[in-house]
Design a protein that fits this description.
Blueprint lengths: L7 E6 L14 E6 L4 H10 L7 H4 L20 H5 L11 H7 L1
Antiparallel strand pairs: 1-2
């Protein structure tokens, strides 16, 4: 299995009982491991499997990280205002049909 593997990702969740909030559902996150060989990554994952991991154990102070994600649109916003796309004028899609006929 390890010889075909290129990327190792871990599915982790937050501990809701530790946080004193009314939230009952845990946050589930998929984290990609970078750096080192595949064997080292798998060894590290197996050591920490089913154990609580502190953020300070993974990240250092003022360390840069990459976040991949999208935003959730709330309310009645349309695509144009949310993603800053341009609005087409009326009947723009029919102009190519008119131009080819003449």
């Amino acid at each position: 299995m390890l010889r075909y593997c290129k990327v190792i990702r871990v599915i982790a969740h937050s501990q809701v009982r530790v946080i004193k909030q009314s939230q009952k559902k845990a946050h589930v996150v998929e984290i990609q491991l970078n750096g080192g060989s595949i064997e080292d990554k798998m060894k590290w994952v197996r050591e920490l499997l089913e154990k609580p991991v502190a953020v300070s154990k993974i990240f250092a102070q003022d360390e840069m990280i990459d976040c991949i994600g999208g935003t959730k649109v709330k309310g009645f916003k349309d695509v144009t205002s949310h993603w800053n796309t341009k609005k087409k004028k009326m009947k723009v899609k029919f102009t190519h049909k008119i131009a080819t006929r003449s």
